[in-house]
Amino acid sequence: MTALLELEGLAKHFPVRDALGRARGAVRAVDGVSLSVEAGTVLAIVGESGCGKSTLGRLALRLIEPDAGRLRFAGEDLRALSPRALRARRRDMQLIFQDPFASLDPRMTVEDAILEPLRLHDVVQRGGERARVRQLLERVGLRPDMARRWPHEFSGGQRQRIAIARALASGPKLVIGDEPVSALDVSVQAQVVNLLQDLIRELGLTFVLISHDLGVVRHIADRVAVMYLGQIVEEGPAAAVFGAPRHPYTRALLAAVPGTGAKAALVEGDPPSPIAPPAGCRFHTRCPFAEAVCRTEVPGLAGGEHRAACHLQDRLPPAPALRERVAG
Ligand code: SF4
Ligand code: MG
Fold this sequence. Notes:
It holds the Pfam family ABC_tran. It is found in: Cell inner membrane. It is a peripheral membrane protein. The chain folds into 2 domains: 219 residues, Rossmann fold (3-Layer(aba) Sandwich), CATH 3.40.50; 84 residues, no CATH class. It is built from 11 helices and 11 strands. The radius of gyration is 21 Å and the shape is globular. 41% of the residues are buried. The strands form 2 sheets. It has a 7-stranded mixed beta sheet with strand order 6-7-8-3-9-10-11, with helices on both faces. A 4-stranded antiparallel beta sheet has the order 2-1-4-5. The C terminus is likely disordered. It is α/β, with parallel strands linked by helices and 328 residues long. Helix 3 packs parallel to helix 5, helix 4 packs across helix 5 and helix 5 packs parallel to helix 6. The protein binds iron/sulfur cluster and magnesium ion.
């Protein structure tokens, strides 16, 4: 297998200023992330809100500039591309946003919204664009004659389908979905997840799913990366991460998966400030297993195919009840 997307030591810090404009440190939104996504697979990036996963998704497509690190798409150094070359490369890399209400221009018909990327990237021959729009609408489960309507005439689920059609218009190889169903009614979420799953399979897409909802991730991911305070704390095949989580934070997240009868999160309290993350293991302030070493030594990601950043990962008690809960 070959990696379509490779991130190495990627970092992005956002300066924080007080009311008088004085520098007050920086939010370490993404703090040294290395990941690679094989072509044709689905990687899920999970974690609590504010852990940096949305920033990471935007960095991966160079929608925002990293402060440090390497970024390769199909072997090409994305950070070395000129703005013009990067615009051309956008054809292959698309983002689906969380909010289908905000991601469509209310002054554009559905047809015009989907025509825009088709024309920008010169995807279809002149004269064939409108037929292609109708095909795309059908492909996402909407009627072709809906092309002439306006975004406000659609429900949230339909708008997200339109946004998906728009993202697919240029024929991308890589799609990043940033919480693509979390703004939708629960009853509609499964339908849109199923649609995404079908599209991924049929089009052979490489997909990065950013989500705080492990129930959604479980259905769709080949691999899972767990993020905490700007860093990856665990990464591996989905079955391994869900079946035998190695990091205490992952265990806590899994224990809080809705529908498992264990809604009460094991992660107590709020995450610490990403402006001044704790020394040593960043999770030590909330970890039930923390020892002295955890407060001083930074644990590296270790363990090969299924990696975790925890000093105690080989000594933690097994979590059999947890395994049963997430197996169904
Ligand atoms: Fe908990 Fe220590 Fe492991 Fe961090 S390194 S997750 S504090 S046991
Ligand atoms: Mg987010």
